[in-house]
């Protein structure tokens, strides 16, 4: 093992009294000249404390005990945390970045809670069955009651059905007289619909989380307890979302035969899963679809139900289960007559241009599962069983994409599982990073396994301690996705501290007493690492002021882990160095371990503290080269690296310091200019790599309908008019048996000769003379295969069947890729064309010719060579792809619109492609006083209702507002106003209440899709109402661009509300949107990150000012940090990045990461001293700068290298925030070490105080000044904030 002692590479002065008792000695000098006076009490305590440290860390058994306790304490606390405390919730959701305290989030959360308390689920009214809405019926009954009280005639009201009894028996009786005004036929139809969907209603009510449903006296409790179903899997509860995206062509039209066959193959593949029937959705209506038997599982909700119909008994069933493709244009012409059609395609498709770049599909799965009697029977277990089943599709679907079709897949369980797997796979890169760091640390510690192990172990143990403090002490119950970065970053930060301790211990080898050496190491390295760790932790802690929960948690966790890392390295590394030096290496310049301990202690107590303050304890020469005789006894790597840094970096920089400062100024100005050119993000945040399934799904959601709409009744198989009404196939649509596609059928015949090798014959005729017999499919033989008579698409490889009559007694047949060789008396019998590479709907066949008589050519399904030959492929041996046998069915090319009977195309309905904006009245806000934090996990709070809101007094103003907002075409799409809950009778009743309610705008919705408008009722009173408007805001724009849309909505609504009477409760209404939450999340994320950057800079300046206690030492650090940050931002601009939330969050830690190296260099400058104080100040600065570079150069370069290597694996992460975080940290580290070795060194050599030593109480004085400045700055900021305008941002 190499020795830990490094020779003194420099000769100079190191004033050790500064580290020991400088303050106490000066106090003694002020008392008098009695040098023999007893030291003061404070000095006794200090001596006693450092003597205790020195004694513990020079005894191997005591150091071993420290190491044992250093391991046991984190493990014990971690065991307590994992076994006795609540488990940590790993929050990987995008909502972890939502700002719950922001006004936009509070508005939307208040509406969400109100809807949940009324309906039981936020998305319930989007998925309910057609023609039945509990909420609309209740509101209708209440309006009719008010109309009756006013004595108005309601005989003209149409579609007034029997009240649902929501208001109780008393109010229901008031409507009995009105039943005669309803249409009896409509009432009967409605009643049939109500009866048919009662299970759906039971599901919604029983799954409700509303507090009223949970009360013992609630009438819904009985339904929930005894709900049961006669059939299993009849309720559509889960789903898989599929999006097929066309690629590979310029037009990218998904409706081509090749792409549609691929989609059909994928859908059928999913249904062929062995466990599919155990989880599929089995609605009762599917019993009427004969081709679905015997399982009667619902086919995918897809347009392929029209494109691949099935035929049974001369009837066409639109269920997508047929094997052949119908006429594309005719099938689409039929499908577009239903408004559900638009749900499957993009917004560019029109009736005149039936082309779409994508096609949506859904596969629904039903509950209750087998062995469960209802949805409420062990629901978590049912969900777990389904999740274990459905995640198997991820591997299948990930392999289905082709060059023409990109298959994207999602759904709650699949998407979450893929996010979780992606996160775990990215975290596994930390193991690779740790392995690389281990090897590097092993090399940089001069191949010491002992120091490498304990150095890295101290970092790992600090992670456990930080996790304990984070979870148990601070009570945080979740880990955010950003916290995963800590596994990479802490390696570089921790290794920095480890290298400083090792380097300091090696450079103190001149001290002959082990106690002196250890105390010097602890004080010098401990203080240097404390300064950097404190500033880094403070910079991370600045993020705790962020309003974004994920950023706040990340800042807290990183500040804890950096602090614990410093503490554990400071505790364990001295103990490890003690054992390594005394038990693992042989030294001649250390105190004896046993008999010499007492003399060393005496020498330590009498010699060190009684030495003069200017005594030359470290004699370092700036010119003395490394002695060859001593280099072998020290760390060879560190010694050589130190020589290289001295010769190639430090000395040239000091010599050309003015030039370097000039270049720095130019670089700074250029960087500032590039920073000004950096643009805000022009697109939505990217969370995963662009080419991944996850990110492409997220990108497409801006073009697709809202996630809450589940159109499981939209396909042809479930269409209201085409559902089970089947077409009789016209005679002119029947396909003939023959075809003109150019397909040939090559028949293979076989003749057994009694030998081991039979003869094979190939013919285009199905019958040949005897004794030839048709080949069977046994033993790999192929009885026939199909091919093309001429080149067809990719089937362009020509093969020839050659025959020779030169052999007796029977001719021979041969397959070859060349022409028949006439010189060998082979003549061509016929040719055919196959493919050389795999094609869709093709099979691979092998052919080979036997090498001995009778030289037969055989075609087989496998293996290569057909057992005839094992040689390489050639003209008479190889493989080819033949088209699969095609059986022409009656549905192939079927055109249902051939007679012009399909009808007119439906008008495009609203499918929530724009941001849905809600205008809410009757809600004042949300009460979150019971919330202890700002995180998204947990209770949202409670709604504060407006007691003055009365819908009947404000009904006229509400109708007027609805018309005014829907008329603003800049904000609302045509047909996008949804002012009322679903229910046609409401529009007939409202005009009786107020004239303004005539001709209210009608929404253009999908059949079966209910209005997003909602009301909150309780006890026969309307507490709140929300009107929904599908806005023109495109959800794919960046947050900064969308913010202008928000401002337009806000200003327009406030203008409309201001026109109402002052006494109107509607003036307290507001507009909200889920999309507004997302845009403010990014905007506030960028702003808070920039504020955190400034706060980190202020904290670092304050910390450095306190610890250096000199302006000329603070200025080089400040200028270096300024240049580093500006240059990093400039590099981001050169790389083409934009300032989004991810980039801003990464910038918030730059200051903490940048200050480490330059602060180490300044600390080394303070430690360096020159015995000759009579020289010029410039010479003193240069000498001290060189000494500082020699002292810390190896440590900071080693730390920078390890930090960069630890972040390189982040480049390959799929999660984009991880990847960009790693890139920014690596760029920042490289720039920081470069600036430290050049700019900071040049600035210290130019303006550093030559003869400055830190005076007594300098730290306290500097701290007082910084505190005063900080208080003044805080007062000024608070004063300015009081006069700032109050906005939502």
Automatic annotation (TrEMBL):
Pfam families: DUF7023, Sterol-sensing. InterPro entries: DISP3, DUF7023, HMGCR/SNAP/NPC1-like_SSD, SSD. Residues 1-41, 168-188 are annotated as: Disordered. Gene3D superfamilies: Multidrug efflux transporter AcrB transmembrane domain. PROSITE patterns: SSD. Residues 474-579 form the SSD domain. Keywords: Membrane, Transmembrane, Transmembrane helix. The keyword Membrane applies. SUPFAM superfamilies: Multidrug efflux transporter AcrB transmembrane domain. GO terms for cellular component: cytoplasm. Residues 169-181 have a biased composition (Polar residues). The chain crosses the membrane at residues 61-83, 427-444, 450-473, 485-505, 525-542, 554-577, 1089-1107, 1113-1135, 1192-1218, 1224-1246, 1258-1278. Residues 18-34 have a biased composition (Acidic residues). PANTHER family: PROTEIN DISPATCHED HOMOLOG 3. This is Dispatched RND transporter family member 3.
């Amino acid at each position: 093992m190499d020795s830990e002692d490094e020779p003194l590479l420099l000769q100079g002065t190191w004033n050790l009294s500064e580290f020991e008792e400088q303050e106490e000695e000066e106090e003694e000098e002020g008392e008098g000249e009695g040098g023999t006076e007893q030291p003061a009490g404070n000095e006794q305590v200090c001596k006693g404390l450092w003597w205790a440290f020195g004694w513990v860390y020079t005894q191997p058994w005591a150091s071993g005990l420290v190491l044992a306790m250093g391991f046991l304490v984190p493990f014990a606390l971690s065991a307590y945390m994992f076994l006795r405390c609540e488990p940590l919730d790993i929050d990987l959701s995008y909502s972890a970045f939502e700002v719950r305290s922001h006004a936009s989030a509070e508005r939307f959360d208040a509406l969400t809670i109100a809807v949940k308390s009324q309906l039981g689920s936020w998305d319930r009214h989007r998925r309910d069955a057609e023609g039945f809405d509990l909420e609309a019926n209740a509101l209708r009954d209440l309006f009719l009651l008010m109309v009756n009280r006013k004595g108005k005639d309601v005989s003209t009201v149409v579609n007034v059905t029997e009240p649902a009894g929501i208001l109780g028996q008393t109010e229901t009786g008031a409507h009995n007289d009105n039943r005669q005004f309803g249409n009896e036929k409509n009432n009967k139809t409605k009643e049939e619909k109500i009866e048919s969907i009662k299970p759906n209603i039971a599901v919604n009510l029983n799954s409700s989380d509303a507090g009223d449903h949970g009360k013992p006296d609630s009438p819904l409790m009985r339904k929930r307890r005894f709900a049961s179903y006669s059939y299993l899997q009849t309720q559509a509860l889960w789903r898989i979302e599929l999006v097929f995206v066309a690629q590979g062509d310029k037009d990218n039209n998904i409706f081509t035969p090749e792409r549609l066959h691929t989609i059909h193959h994928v859908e059928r593949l999913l249904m062929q899963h062995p466990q599919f029937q155990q989880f599929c959705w089995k609605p009762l209506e599917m019993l009427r679809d004969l081709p679905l038997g015997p399982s009667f599982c619902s086919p995918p909700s897809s347009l392929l139900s029209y494109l691949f119909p099935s035929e049974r008994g001369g009837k066409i069933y639109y269920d997508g289960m047929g094997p052949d493709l119908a006429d594309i244009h005719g099938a689409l012409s039929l499908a577009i007559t239903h408004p559900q059609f638009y749900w499957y395609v993009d917004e560019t498709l029109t009736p005149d241009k039936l082309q779409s770049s994508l096609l949506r599909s859904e596969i629904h799965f039903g509950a209750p599962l087998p062995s469960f009697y209802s949805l409420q029977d062990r629901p978590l277990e049912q969900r777990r069983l389904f999740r274990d089943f459905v995640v198997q599709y991820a591997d299948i679907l990930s392999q289905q994409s082709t060059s023409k079709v990109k298959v994207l897949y999602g759904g709650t369980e699949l998407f979450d599982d893929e996010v979780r797997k992606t996160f775990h796979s990215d975290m596994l890169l930390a193991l690779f990073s740790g392995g690389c760091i281990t090897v590097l640390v092993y090399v940089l510690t001069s191949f010491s396994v002992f120091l490498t192990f304990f150095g890295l172990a101290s970092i790992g143990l600090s992670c456990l301690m930080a996790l304990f403090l984070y979870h148990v002490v601070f009570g945080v119950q979740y880990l955010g996705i950003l916290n995963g970065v800590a596994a990479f970053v802490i390696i570089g930060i921790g290794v920095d501290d480890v290298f400083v301790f090792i380097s300091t211990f090696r450079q103190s080898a001149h001290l002959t007493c082990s106690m002196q050496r250890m105390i010097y190491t602890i004080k010098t390295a401990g203080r240097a690492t404390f300064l950097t760790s404190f500033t880094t932790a403070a910079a991370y802690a600045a993020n705790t002021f962020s309003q974004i929960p994920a950023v706040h948690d990340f800042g807290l966790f990183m500040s804890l882990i950096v602090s614990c890392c410093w503490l554990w390295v400071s505790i364990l590394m001295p103990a490890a160095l003690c054992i390594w030096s005394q038990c693992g290496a042989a030294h001649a310049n250390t105190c004896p371990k046993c008999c010499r301990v007492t003399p060393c202690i005496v020498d330590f107590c009498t010699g060190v503290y009684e030495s003069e303050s200017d005594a030359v304890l470290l004699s370092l020469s700036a010119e003395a080269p490394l002695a060859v005789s001593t280099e072998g006894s020290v760390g060879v790597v560190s010694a050589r690296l130190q020589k290289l840094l001295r010769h190639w970096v430090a000395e040239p920089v000091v010599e050309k310091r003015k030039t370097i400062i000039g270049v720095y100024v130019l670089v700074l100005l250029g960087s500032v200019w590039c920073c000004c050119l950096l643009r805000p993000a022009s697109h939505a945040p990217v969370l995963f790599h662009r080419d991944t399934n996850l990110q492409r799904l997220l990108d497409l959601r801006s073009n697709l309908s809202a996630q809450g709409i589940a159109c499981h009744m939209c396909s042809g198989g479930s269409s209201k008019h085409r559902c089970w009404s089947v077409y009789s196939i016209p005679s002119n649509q029947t396909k003939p048996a023959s075809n003109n596609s150019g397909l040939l059928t090559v028949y293979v015949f076989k003749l057994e000769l009694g030998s081991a090798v039979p003869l094979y014959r190939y013919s285009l005729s199905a019958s040949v003379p005897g004794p030839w017999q048709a080949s069977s499919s046994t033993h790999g033989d192929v009885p026939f295969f199909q091919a093309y008579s001429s080149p067809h698409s990719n089937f362009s490889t020509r093969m020839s069947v050659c025959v020779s009559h030169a052999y007796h007694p029977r001719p021979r047949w041969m397959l070859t890729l060349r022409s028949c060789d006439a010189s060998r008396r082979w003549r061509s019998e016929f040719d055919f064309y196959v493919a050389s590479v795999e094609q869709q709907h093709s099979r691979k066949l092998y052919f080979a010719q036997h090498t001995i008589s009778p030289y037969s050519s055989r075609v087989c399904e496998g293996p290569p060579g057909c057992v005839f030959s094992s040689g390489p492929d050639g003209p008479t041996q190889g493989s080819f792809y033949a088209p699969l046998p095609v059986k022409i069915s009656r549905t192939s090319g079927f055109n249902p619109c051939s007679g012009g009977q399909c009808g007119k195309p439906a008008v495009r309905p609203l499918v929530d492609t724009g941001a849905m904006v809600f205008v809410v009245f009757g809600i004042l806000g949300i009460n979150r006083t019971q919330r202890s934090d700002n995180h998204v996990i947990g209770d949202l709070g409670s709604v504060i209702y407006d007691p003055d809101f009365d819908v009947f007094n404000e009904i006229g103003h509400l109708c007027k507002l609805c018309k005014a907002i829907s008329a603003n075409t800049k904000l609302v799409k045509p047909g996008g106003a949804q002012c009322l809950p679903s229910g046609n009778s409401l529009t007939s009743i409202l005009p009786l209440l107020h004239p303004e309610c005539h001709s209210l705008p009608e929404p253009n919705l999908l059949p079966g899709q209910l209005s997003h408008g909602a009301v909150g009722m309780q006890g026969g009173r309307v507490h709140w109402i929300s009107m929904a408007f599908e806005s023109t805001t495109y959800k794919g724009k960046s947050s900064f661009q969308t913010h202008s849309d928000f401002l337009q909505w806000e200003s327009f609504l406030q203008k409309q509300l201001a026109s109402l009477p002052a006494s109107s409760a509607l003036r307290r209404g507001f507009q909200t949107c889920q999309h507004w939450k997302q845009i403010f999340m990014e905007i506030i994320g960028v702003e808070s990150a920039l504020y955190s950057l400034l706060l980190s800079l202020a904290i670092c300046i304050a910390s450095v000012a306190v610890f250096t206690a000199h302006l000329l030492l603070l200025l080089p650090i400040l200028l270096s940090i300024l240049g580093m940050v500006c240059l990093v931002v400039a590099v981001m601009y050169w790389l083409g990045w934009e300032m989004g939330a991810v980039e801003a969050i990464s910038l918030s830690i730059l200051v903490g990461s940048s200050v480490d190296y330059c602060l180490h260099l300044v600390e080394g400058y303070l430690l360096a001293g020159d015995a000759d104080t009579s020289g010029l100040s410039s010479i003193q600065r240069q000498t001290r700068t060189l000494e500082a570079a020699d002292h810390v150069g190896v440590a900071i370069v080693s730390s920078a290298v390890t930090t960069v290597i630890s972040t390189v694996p982040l480049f390959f992460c799929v999660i984009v925030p991880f990847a960009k975080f790693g890139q920014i940290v690596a760029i920042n580290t490289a720039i920081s070490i470069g600036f430290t070795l050049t700019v900071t060194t040049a600035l210290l050599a130019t303006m550093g105080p030559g003869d400055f030593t830190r005076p007594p109480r300098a730290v306290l004085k500097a701290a007082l000044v910084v505190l005063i400045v900080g208080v003044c700055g805080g007062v000024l900021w608070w004063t300015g904030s009081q006069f700032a305008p109050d906005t939502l941002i």
